[in-house]
Write a structure and sequence with these properties.
Largest sheet: 5 strands, mixed
Number of domains: 2
Distance between the termini: 23 Å
Order of helices and strands: HHHHEEEHEHEHHEHEEEHEEHEHEHHHH
CATH superfamily of the largest domain: Leucine Dehydrogenase, chain A, domain 1
CATH topology of the largest domain: Rossmann fold
Strand content: 5-15%
Structural class: alpha/beta
Bound molecules: NADPH dihydro-nicotinamide-adenine-dinucleotide phosphate, (2Z)-2-iminopentanedioic acid
Strand order of the largest sheet: 1-2-4-3-5
């Protein structure tokens, strides 16, 4: 273990800041699987960690397109094909100005273990671009997506690599990407998931990640505390695909979600947020959360830069359960301290790696329920795999069938994580449970497949 830590430090010293999030994700996994690497020589002998932490390939390309004023715009596109030991490369595309290779390597690495935990035949990948869909017209988004796919299509296929959505990529973007792929290849096939339903998408894919987080949390609270979510005050961050569907499922279960956030601030409505209005503002009109106050003047909106102590206002609001569903490292040590001080009993990560290392350690030390992203937010990729199955067999499944299968899969993941933690002497530590269970399956496949 000491050797791995020294190696990581050496790599950290060599690399630029971009890779910080990648090392953060890698370090957490290494610490969790240390006992396994120590007790089982086979992983060391096969250099599994070295092989698992270097992507199979990183594809980087230029994307040029015309904006509405006929100006040429240039962006960078990426696809990080990380590991296909368990199945075709699978993972989302993120369109956001912050996107760089380091962020996509962190997301791709996490995706390998997440996809392994699902028990489904899918490998790990991630991609995207520094393109910002915000403020662009539909036509500009279409132009960009076409240009992006002109290059990406060379590297993907239903049995090779199947991208999906992530931040800034929803049904609209997937539709344009699919249209361009079809035009170039003349092939109508399941090369992307998260497609709108009427041309091959799965029912429930939009809801899947948010609903999945809540199904996972329900199971975790049953195992660890024998408590339901019903009647509990919950805080949620984000106001996108994951956050809004997590809020929806919380309402289905009788919980009271009182917050959401966007990149500019926190909205707090103590009576429970108005979900229909939020969907209208964030998914349809794509405007600021502040607009919510025009309908509900009694709610409170705290802009990010007006919060005096640093950190996000959302995590300072008392709650039983917290659901960070916006972006990486949004929940800091300061936020964790505030949550714990206010009696929070459960944190479930809807976003990928939303809690900093210090925040995770604070939750584990306090022994509250903590559901790490790679287990808790696997619902999205689970239903993506269901979409691949439906496309390959030319079938359509009902909403109830997809929902039942999603719920069952999230319960299975939760139980596997809890049991693995117990088997390795760290009962209740879902971070170690998820990392060990996810790692073991991929590592064993890599060994069985030879080098
Ligand atoms: P969306 O683009 O639909 O929504 C992202 C939300 O987060 C927006 O409300 C955005 O605010 C807010 N946000 C706040 N700060 C930031 C920031 N610094 N960068 C980007 N967004 C910010 O994304 P999703 O809901 O799909 O994804 C949210 C998280 O969930 C991500 O971590 C993603 O990787 C993860 N995830 C997504 C899955 C999926 O199926 N979509 C599956 C598994 C994980 P604003 O409205 O101001 O832009
Ligand atoms: O982080 C994720 O799991 C996703 N963005 C979804 C990936 C997918 O292939 O559905």
């Amino acid at each position: 273990m000491k050797k791995y830590k020294e190696d990581i430090q050496k790599l950290k010293n060599l690399n630029c800041k971009e890779d910080d999030v990648f090392f953060q994700a890698m370090e957490e996994v290494l610490l969790s699987i240390a006992p396994l690497l120590k007790s089982d020589e086979v992983y060391k002998k096969n250099a599994i960690m070295e092989r698992l932490t270097i992507p199979d390939r990183v594809i980087k390309f230029k994307v040029t397109w015309f904006d509405d004023n006929q100006n040429v715009q240039v962006n960078t596109g990426y696809r990080v094909q990380f590991n296909n030991a368990l199945g075709p490369y699978k993972g989302g595309l993120r369109f956001h100005p912050s996107v760089n290779e380091g962020i996509l390597k962190f997301l791709g690495f996490e995706q390998i273990l997440k996809n392994s935990l699902t028990g489904l035949p899918i490998g790990g990948a991630k991609g995207g671009s520094d393109f910002d869909p915000k403020g662009k017209s539909d036509f500009e988004v279409m132009k960009f997506c076409s240009a992006f796919m002109t290059e990406l299509h060379k590297y993907i296929g239903p049995r090779i690599d199947v991208p999906a959505g992530d931040i800034g990529v929803g049904g609209r973007e997937i539709g344009y990407l699919f249209g361009e792929y079809k035009k170039i290849t003349s092939s109508f096939e399941g090369v992307l998931t998260g497609k709108p339903y009427f041309f091959g998408g799965s029912l429930m894919r939009p809801e899947a990640t948010g609903y999945g987080v809540i199904y996972f949390t329900e199971t975790m609270l049953k195992i660890e505390k024998a408590e339901p979510l019903k009647g509990k005050i919950c805080t949620v961050s984000g106001a996108g695909n994951v956050a809004l569907h997590a809020i929806e499922k919380l309402y289905h279960l009788g919980a009271i979600p009182v917050t959401c956030t966007d990149s500019k601030g926190t909205l707090h409505d103590p009576r429970g947020v108005d979900l229909e209005l939020l969907k209208e503002l964030k998914l349809k009109k794509r405007v600021s959360l502040e607009e919510y106050l025009k309908t509900h003047s009694e709610a409170k909106y705290t802009p990010v830069d007006e919060y005096p102590e640093g950190g996000h206002a959302v995590w300072h609001i008392p709650c039983y359960a917290a659901f960070p569903c916006a972006t990486q490292n949004e929940l800091t040590a300061l936020d964790a301290k505030a949550l714990l001080k206010n009696g929070c009993k459960s944190v479930s990560e809807g976003a990928n790696m939303p809690s900093t290392t210090e925040a995770v350690n604070a939750f584990l030390d306090a022994k509250i329920c903590f559901a790490p992203a790679k287990a808790a937010n696997a619902g999205g990729v689970v239903v993506s795999e269901f979409e691949m199955s439906q496309n390959a067999s030319m079938q359509r499944w009902s909403f109830e069938k997809v929902d039942d299968k999603l719920k069952d899969t999230m319960q299975q993941i939760c139980k596997r994580v809890a049991l693995t933690a117990r088997d390795y002497g760290v009962e209740g530590n879902y971070v170690d449970g998820a990392n060990i269970a996810g790692f073991k399956k991929v590592a064993d496949a890599m060994i069985a497949e030879g080098i």
